[in-house]
Write the structure tokens for this entry.
Amino acid sequence: MALPKQSEDFPAWYQEVVRGADLAENSLARGTMVIKPYGFAIWEGIQRAIDDRIKATGHQNLYFPLFIPASLLEKEAEHVEGFAPEVAVVTHAGGEKLEEPLVIRPTSETIIWDAYARWVQSWRDLPLLYNQWCNVVRWEMRPRLFLRTTEFLWQEGHTAHETEGEALAEARRILFEVYRDAVERVLAIPVRVGRKSPSQRFPGAVETYCMEALMRDRKALQAGTSHYLGQNFAKAYGVRYLDRAGHLQYAYATSWGVSARLVGGLIMAHGDDRGLRLPPALAPYQAVIVPIYQSEDQRSRVTEACAKLVADLTHAGPDGLRVKVDDRQEHRPGYKFNEWEIRGVPIRIEVGPRDLDAEQVTVVRRDSGTREGRPISGLGETVARLLSGIQETLLAQAETFLEEHTFHPTSYAEMRAVLTDPGGFAITAWCGRQECEDRVKADTKATIRYLPMEPAPPNAPCIVCGMPAVDEAAWAQAY
Amino acid sequence: MALPKQSEDFPAWYQEVVRGADLAENSLARGTMVIKPYGFAIWEGIQRAIDDRIKATGHQNLYFPLFIPASLLEKEAEHVEGFAPEVAVVTHAGGEKLEEPLVIRPTSETIIWDAYARWVQSWRDLPLLYNQWCNVVRWEMRPRLFLRTTEFLWQEGHTAHETEGEALAEARRILFEVYRDAVERVLAIPVRVGRKSPSQRFPGAVETYCMEALMRDRKALQAGTSHYLGQNFAKAYGVRYLDRAGHLQYAYATSWGVSARLVGGLIMAHGDDRGLRLPPALAPYQAVIVPIYQSEDQRSRVTEACAKLVADLTHAGPDGLRVKVDDRQEHRPGYKFNEWEIRGVPIRIEVGPRDLDAEQVTVVRRDSGTREGRPISGLGETVARLLSGIQETLLAQAETFLEEHTFHPTSYAEMRAVLTDPGGFAITAWCGRQECEDRVKADTKATIRYLPMEPAPPNAPCIVCGMPAVDEAAWAQAY
């Protein structure tokens, strides 16, 4: 199967990789998707990486319901304004019309803070450091597999704190430590972190922190967000506690989430014209063994050798490797090579009679295409070492790509040019006014992706309007 | 907090244990619940036990959408008849009325078999061995925390096979090996397995296999089911494949599930008048250390000793132990003892100055209440050994209880008596007619829980009507 070239039609390439690698497909209800086993195994790997880190920083998982009474959603004004247009509503159940419609959660701040009002009485009850893995529903007008679907899988953390300082530290720790570490080390995707501009903030947030990654088409992808919500939800839902001095105070809130959209990011950050390139830390199969034979005699000899290799590889490295023998007889080796390339398996091991005569196998790296004979003896450790190298290479390549597509234009004309072609991030001084954001969007389709955490003092005027700058901003076209 | 006695008011006892152990609470929408962190950690343990076994038997996880177009549900006649009265329906989304209402999945056979029609062409595509973890919604008239909720968490496996024999073997393997092994070894709950009578079968199934456990109030709890669906769904959704001889055939189906109801089963199978008794394999904390001191001097000495014990216990046994120090200063030791008893922590370790003088600690088993001094040296291994013993004891006690409440009445009068008081399972010959099932239910509230897999040849007449028996049946009152 030949894929469209990334350089010619990136959206078509994406769609064909999702299909060809058997990751997902559209389902019947508008904007919904089936995540197929190979795609789901990648998501399970991402979940494990995030969940381990969430727990290691003292958070616990719990589960809140899918259904939110419509009246509850309406208590936080900005929040309902942001989400009301996107919600799906249950009006009938058990054969009857409901007295009050139920909204399917688009996110769970409202139902969770309603419960926190019962759970929090004293400063001793704080902090609450909770997270849930669940499905949420937001009606999407332009759905796209993994990136924007009506129903999507995610985790959402919701914490309550005594002080503003503690809540701010929490919101930042999650983004800068938990999420960033998982995405860079496990997904091998370098991210830029910062704050959102007011127009891009989560509805109801005081500050939204975000991480942004750069895809191979030089568009940015928001890979995760963490919100400092101040006392907005505490006030809307009446979450007060007796502080250490015996006074009633409203609690401070954060919420934060990453979703299965990260699978889309993984595809677009590392994929090439031959298909997916999976980081070994997440690959459902880290190595695939393809037996090669012409006769029955060769077949039994090669099959036996493959079985021994699986035993060796399954126990190699600190945790063993995930290995598969592709012994399908209805397909020729070339077909299998192609398929496992599209599916992004980091290492392919070809085992034929001539290899065995030389007491070696042929090892092909998916990242570089390098093809080399390697001795059978000690192959497990060889492959474990190669996999570490591939993980590092993918991250390093993505870092280089990100660097090469980060621009510091000095005029608006130059900014417009780089944002359109080649694309990437343009970092400039900005006056802080939405007018200028709107103008850039109209001219280039780019938006402010993040405001750096420690901006260089903006000694230049706003790149758009020339007025005094108050911030730095990183602009890009985005998913 | 004093709990109601099990013997006096079992439902009140259950409700208070769920509350006192901080497992769950009702949420706002009718019949929905919040699973709180301690309850969710138990469910995560159950999930891990089931998921590991599902994967070890060659199944893969995937994810199908929450929404099923209403028309799709209607294609399998018995299935829609069974579920239509219970579904919740989305009629509006994105601010508009939907052209076709969307049903929230009550179970996913329909949407999955619709996809299988695209995925299956040839015998080479079979079997499909897939599973998903998700939420489903069934409108419940009499909701009860964990046991019957409008939304509930579960896994549902859906497999497709070439032959009837293979599908039957799959349905049985899941129940008799995967589920039973997890429930007996990890939850320490012994189960009886068998077939459901036709009236209790899953809507659309040819045969339903089930496992039934006995709760402390001598009512049965259905702990998991596995269905052989024949070709019903393949025919309804057009899932045909070219067989090895080149003929088009309908595929054979199974589906199977267990849910977070198992947490309710865990509470009611092992709990006593002091609260939960958790099997160590699932306990979020396997041991809790309670420091005891009167003065500041004592406090620092005891605190230091506790820290050392945690380090020792965290690394004890093959995988380390899950340990918590309860160092809350606002509560006295007695309060803590009571709380951790309600919460069912298998082992409590009391550490006071006198203990330390004797180079020992006081170890209290939750299962038996045994209280003994144990040397600090080697405490990790001591506790690991005790935990194994507690796991075995809980299973053995539940097995004894199950045996003691399994009756073989020889007359209908005797059957009525044992089913009502003390309650438990009555195993009898049965004519196979629903009339007799209905009569028993009217007289005793009991239903047929299972038909044993290898029934003794029924050489007795039906215990209800005296007509020739065709089967054995196990009757009980049930949740």
Notes: Chain A has 14 helices and 23 strands. The CA atoms of residues 188 and 395 of chain A lie 5 Å apart.
